[in-house]
Amino acid sequence: MIVSSNTEHLDLQFKTRPDKHSYSTKTTLNLRARPRSTSRLYALYSAEFTVVRIMTSVKETNGVANQDTNGLLEKTNPKSDTAELPAPDPNNPFSFPALTLPSGLLFNRVRVMKCPVKDDPVTHLKKIYDLPMRDDDIIITAYPKCGTHWVAEILHMLTSGATEFSGRTKEYTMLEFCNDLRFLATLTSPRLLNSHLYMAQLPRGIVDKKVKMVHMIRNPKDTAVSMYHHLKHTASEQFTFDNFLKGYPCGDYIVFSHQFDYLRQMAEFEKSHPDHPIMHIHYEDLKQDPAAIIKELSQFIETPASDDFCQRVAAACGFSNMRKVDSTREIPESLRKFSKKRLEIYRKGVVGDWKNHFTVAQSEAFDEFLAEQKQKGFGFTPRGEL
Fold first, then answer.
1. Structural domain of residue 203, as residue ranges?
2. Does the global pTM surpass 0.85?
3. Per the domain annotation, does 109 fall within a domain?
4. 120/270 Cα distance (integer angstroms)
5. Which residues lie within the region annotated Disordered (predicted)?
6. Which of these, 9, 24, 46, 370, could form a disulfide with 1 (CB 3.0-4.6 Å)?
């Protein structure tokens, strides 16, 4: 099925008739018509949320053909680079772990993650979207494996004024992993939230309250290596690095797609909201001069810190310390469901470690992928070798 970014919505009620080509049906709640010229992400911060089920067979489609959904007629345009939402291959040829695969659902035109929480994924995303935000909230956003744990601990120390580690892992305030979002209302301000979700699925109150956002960016080859090792914990032995590199660029086997889809939607959000407070931090810059970046971060969140304190935070949040502390901290039930054994969050934390994993042939193939993405626009240009 193709869902175009400039799809025209008509406010109609009718009995769903599946498209004979796409085998899909659609239900839209809290309907609001939008002009075709409205930018995609700006429009997604309206009061609308959309759920689309990608049908997997003609038989399944026929089973819902006579249901009255009070749906919304959607016209589709020819295939575009960002509109295609392919269903994962049922045979999963590259052996990606099941939890990473797209669910076949869309929420606000973005693929739905199989959140390991008590609610079904769409219900949980709806609650996230409607989550009340505070003026002094801070939220970390990033593609997975780009340093969110690291900067979360730095922010904890800056806001607490002490170089003491949080007793809980960041997943307690990670929106897609928070089993009961009402827990967040019990936290004292400023709340430190984090998420890997696309902007269209984050709380709409982020825009209304102009919530400060810290966006982490990392070299794509290092990100790929770190992602592979992270996913390997929940995958079969057939999930090799070579298989990962074959499936990752197409974006079909990871619900978040690949890193550049994420970066482009962040760039589009910033373009649509030029006055929104966002600090972009490159993982490589934080590694090279942590105290300087921590100083800038303290000023961004309006909690100025002395040079000496920033140096102490940088030392406390060194990789070996973070790895040691993380192994002893309390983790939420949702994270325990994600993997039978404790996930290894801190593996190496080395800039340029991709050179120890990619073969020459793999690097050249990945470079072709990078060249294609550069033509489309990176969104944000990563540091390091590309």
1. 133-376
2. no
3. no
4. 30
5. 65-89
6. 24
| pLDDT tens-place string over residues 278-292 | 999 999 999 999 999
Instruction: Give the helix, strand, coil percentages of the chain, each rounded to 5.
Output: 40, 10, 50
* Average pLDDT of the residues in 84-103: 71
In this predicted model, which residue has the larger pLDDT, 98 or 36?
98
Q: Is 340 inside any structural domain?
A: yes
* Assigned token pair, 198: 């696309």
309 lies in some domain: yes
How many domains in the chain? 1
**CA 377 to CA 155: how far, in whole Å?**
30
The strand ranges marked E within the chain are: 9-10, 24-29, 49-54, 73-74, 105-107, 110-111, 138-142, 192-195, 212-217, 278-282
What pLDDT, in 10s, does the model give residues 206-220?
999 999 999 999 999
The CB-based long-range contact list for 80-86 (8 Å cut-off, 24+ gap) reads 80/2, 80/4, 80/5, 81/376, 82/5, 82/261, 82/264, 83/2, 83/3, 83/4, 83/5, 84/2, 85/1, 85/2, 85/3, 85/54, 85/111, 86/252
d(C-alpha 70, C-alpha 29), whole Å: 9
CA atoms within 13 A on the CB side of 219: 21
What is the SS3 string spanning 309-326?
HHHHHHHHCCHHHHHHHH
Distance between CA 255 and CA 237 in Å, rounded? 21
286: Cβ–Cβ under 8 A, 6 or more apart, which residues? 147, 150, 151, 293
Of 195, 267, 258, 263, the C-alpha closest to 224 is: 258
Beta bridge partners of 212: 138
**Is residue 97 situated within a structural domain?**
no
Whats the size of the chain, residue-wise?
386
The amino acid present at 139, given as its one-letter code, is I
| CATH code of the domain covering residue 223 | 3.40.50.300
- Structure tokens that stand for 275 in this block: 């006055």
